[in-house]
Amino acid sequence: MGSNGWAGCGGVVRDDQGRWIAGFSKHIGSGRSFVAEMWGFRDGLVLCSNLNFQCLIVEVDAKITLLNNDYVNIVVSPLLDDCKQLLSRFQQVQVRHCYQQANHCADVMARMGSNQPLDYVLFHNLPVDVLEAFELGSTGAFWDSGAGAGAGAGLGNF
Could you tell me one molecular function GO term of this UniProt entry (predicted)? Predict the structure, then answer.
């Protein structure tokens, strides 16, 4: 959740050398962080599919339960179904858990999403507001970003 109480999600797509390919931020409105994380995961998969990637490493800071077919929730189940369908488009996908502190760039994108007036913004170029987090993420550095963070999904091809 952003400081305004609204939820947002965001994601970053990097190449195998850690360089920027694309990013996105999305305004979700009200909702829980897990739902925001699922939207970020879904929208990141859509973006990577649109970029014609065949192999991905996906880092998320939520415990995505994609393999649990018994999970039923009127809000989350359709998102999980979308994610499962999207995952089948790729030849190879690794989904890794990554703590929010290590996924700070996607978290910054999510905070931007929670505050933006537009539903979805696609960034072909690295936004200035994200530059520091992106550069620190490229070096493997991380820090405690504090409470109130939005959800994010870091995606990259390999």
Answer: nucleic acid binding
